Amino acid sequence: MDKPQPFIALTSQRSRLTFTLACILLGGLLLAGIYLSIVAGKAAKHQTREQGELLGQQTVTLIKPALLSDDGVSLNFVLNQLVRQPYVEAIILKDPKDRLIGRAGEITQDTLIKQEILIHQQTQTLAILELHLNPEPNQQHISNLLIQTVILALIIIILTLTGCWILLSRHPARLSEAEPTIAPTDSHNLSPNTFLAEATHDSAQKKHSPPPVDTKNIDTLNKDDPEQLVELLRPASDTPAMPDFAPFTEHKESTITQSSEPANAADTIVEEVNLTLPSRNKAPNPLFENSKHEVQLDLYTFEQELELIVAADTAGYLLYLDLASGHSDNIRNDELNELQEYYYRMLDMVIAIYQGEVSRIDSGDLQLAFLKPHKDDSHGINAICASQLFNRLYKQFNQQRIRSLKPVLNLHMALVRGHYKKLPRMQEEARFLTHSTESNDLITHTALSEAPDLKVSLLAGADIERIEEDKVLIKTVNENYQKLLDKQAKHLLKKLFP
């Protein structure tokens, strides 16, 4: 049996709508994919340049001590460790006369990003560091994310098209609203209710219809004047009108009003029922009468009062050496002065590598300040490296003195982080840490150990112990940095005691 033409038309129209929607969605997905692939390449290059700048600054910090001491072994070790990064193809170190000092990796492509960094010591140029960076690893990572996004978008498109197809199948009437014609109905498809309605309608027409009119006269009138034909088809004025229907009414009989013109029809009587509920007086809940309001305590109130939680571009660092409270009463003044002079010489060695400003305060203690902030917190890396290097020098120096049966000082040293213009507040925090903590390790606080740039670089994988809520001991830093610091400490100690 052939399918009826309306069914075929609806199916064709549904297919066209679904196909059009699919083309629009897939075309949009294709354009978005092309655009995002172009943006991904640019973003990968930009990200690689930023990583190269950060790596260059850290590399300068690491290799400057080896350059000053002319230690080729340390230079090659550091360069070979850094070239293992997936985005680093090669690292080349040259002197100002373009002579090769150190090299790691191979340059295999012409599309690499080249960055040059000058290594200065005061006003003298020590060397030129060249970084050859490959943006393909970063671009591959972004492309993998885009592929996952495309797969998810395709799944959503398939579900959308399937839902539209099902929705159009269940509601075909929406597709045929533009077709006002009604299909003819066969007499054998009519239900009994249809026959009953037609019989009632015919009897009513026979009862109220005017006398029969000759067909020939109608045809003549139709040809002469069409308005007369309309008058013949109009119902008589004495035909009773349909009674009005008034919902929500209690009257059993409705008044039937007749009017000769439709514009003056009787208004429908509607009784409004007020469904608004009376409002209840809201009484206070007795359970909340004696409730106590809870107060949320701030975890870092003390640090916030001292303005120690600051951004990298406004952060300063202070290494505080408590020389006054750690010595024994058995140490003579000349021995005490001799030990303090050694510690001051150690600080001078540390400053030659990691910069900083050293000073002796009125109480006899020493401090090393880093008050020139950078947005990447590189001065914080220098501060931690300087503090750990001095800590290693101090411990190895004390071991030599103890083996020689000579007196030593029990130093307490603290490294604090705060606003670079608030040095007195950082001194107050450092004194509190050194006076309230019994440890020879580097003492610090949460404001430093939770600094974002330090956590992902120097403190990544570090051995950190929290002894109180806001007291932290840094025993070792990142493994690669720590190996270099231990090597520097041994080298400087040999210079101190040749």
From TrEMBL:
The chain crosses the membrane at residues 17-39, 145-168. Residues 200-221 are annotated as: Disordered. Keywords: Membrane, Transmembrane, Transmembrane helix. The keyword Transmembrane applies. This is Guanylate cyclase domain-containing protein.
